[in-house]
Write a structure and sequence with these properties.
mainly beta; Ubiquitin-like (UB roll); five-stranded mixed sheet; 1 helix
Length: about 70
């Protein structure tokens, strides 16, 4: 299955939840936000939200500063 991840093609071996993708990217426990097809997915829904073929996924890291 192929998705677009931050604008680049990304192959998934299987259909994953958003939580599964985040874990595969080694981003678990980091301050990030995930949007699928330009809609932000609440962290509480990451386990249940299943990615589909050709979804456009954007992962953004929160960076502190002043």
């Amino acid at each position: 299955m192929e998705i677009s991840l931050n604008g680049a093609p990304h192959q998934l071996g299987e259909q994953l939840s958003v939580a599964g993708l985040v874990a595969n990217l080694n981003l678990a426990n980091q301050a990030i936000a995930v949007a699928v097809n330009r809609s932000v997915i609440a962290r509480q829904r990451w386990e249940e939200y299943r990615l589909q073929e050709h979804d456009q996924v954007d992962v953004v890291r929160a960076i502190g500063g002043g």
